[in-house]
Write a structure and sequence with these properties.
Elements: H1 5-16, E1 21-26, E2 31-38, E3 41-48, H2 66-71, H3 78-95, E4 115-119, H4 123-131, E5 135-140, E6 151-152, H5 156-159, E7 165-169, H6 171-174, H7 178-184, E8 190-194, E9 212-218, H8 221-229, H9 233-237, E10 240-246
Parallel strand pairs: 4-5, 4-7, 5-6, 7-8, 8-9
Antiparallel strand pairs: 1-2, 2-3, 9-10
Helix pairs in contact: 1-3
């Protein structure tokens, strides 16, 4: 049986986590986060928290460490999975140099396509695409984020084979749907994992079908953590820089 995608990512992250130490972490809204240090520098990783996915507030991690959190990345418990992804993103950000990467929005990558899927309702992105006359399919799992033109994520299975490009919220890692999306969107020329949760190291998704990672590098870590503790999404963004990283095939 083939190893699940999250298990493969976990295995790669554990190798890069050697010598790094977990400094602090928190499961919270709007993001769960993990802070690590090593070699005289620190890195912050985040993961979107999806309260609608939580069934039981239970966690089997008794002695938190960087390795312990990463080991839970492929757990069926969404709290454990969210913490694991935040830890993996912290490891990724520690090793990823974004200084030479372009500061760009994910939407700029797909403006030349005629049929685009947006997975995870992102209104500014959708407005930009439809403003250009691009046929845009918007899928969302959380009914609270639906509007009149939003499609249930159940229709991804049917419609993704028809699109030329896909913008996927990094939360697809958290809810475990990224693997299905990659399988159904094999004909797409571009598949961009986007948002703060897409802080993965490009090598972690090499060969999966993900072509780009459009995420955010946190530079002012102390202020970002303070704003995360205060539940501020926009405040956290203000301490970060967007970047786009191509994933080699």
């Amino acid at each position: 049986m083939a190893m699940p995608l999250l298990s493969k990512i976990k295995k790669k992250a554990l190798r890069l986590a050697e010598g790094l130490e977990l400094v602090d972490f928190s499961f919270g809204l709007p993001y769960t986060w993990a802070l690590l240090k090593g070699g005289g520098k620190r890195a912050l990783g985040v993961s979107m928290t999806l309260p609608e996915e939580i069934q039981v507030y239970r966690n089997s991690v008794e002695e938190p460490s960087l390795e312990a959190l990463i080991e839970k990345t492929d757990s069926l418990n969404v709290i454990e999975r969210t913490l694991g992804i935040a830890a993996i993103n912290a490891v990724s950000q520690y090793h990823l140099d974004v200084s030479s990467l372009p500061d760009a929005d994910a939407v700029e990558l797909v403006m030349d396509f005629e049929r685009v899927a947006v997975i995870g309702n992102m209104p500014p992105v959708v407005r930009a695409l439809r403003g250009r006359g691009i046929k845009t399919f918007v899928f969302e799992r959380n009914p609270k984020l639906w509007d009149r033109e939003t499609l249930s994520d159940a229709l991804e299975y049917l419609l993704l084979p028809e699109v030329e490009a896909v913008l996927v919220s990094g939360s697809a890692l958290v809810n475990g749907t990224l693997e299905m999306i990659l399988d159904r969107a094999k004909k797409a020329e571009l598949l961009v994992l986007t948002g703060p949760t897409a802080q993965l190291h490009p090598d972690f998704v090499k060969g999966t079908g993900v072509t780009h990672l459009a995420a955010m590098k946190v530079f002012n870590i102390e202020r970002a953590i303070q704003k995360l503790k205060l539940g501020s999404f926009k405040g956290f963004e203000g301490e970060s820089r967007k970047y786009v990283a191509a994933v080699s095939t």
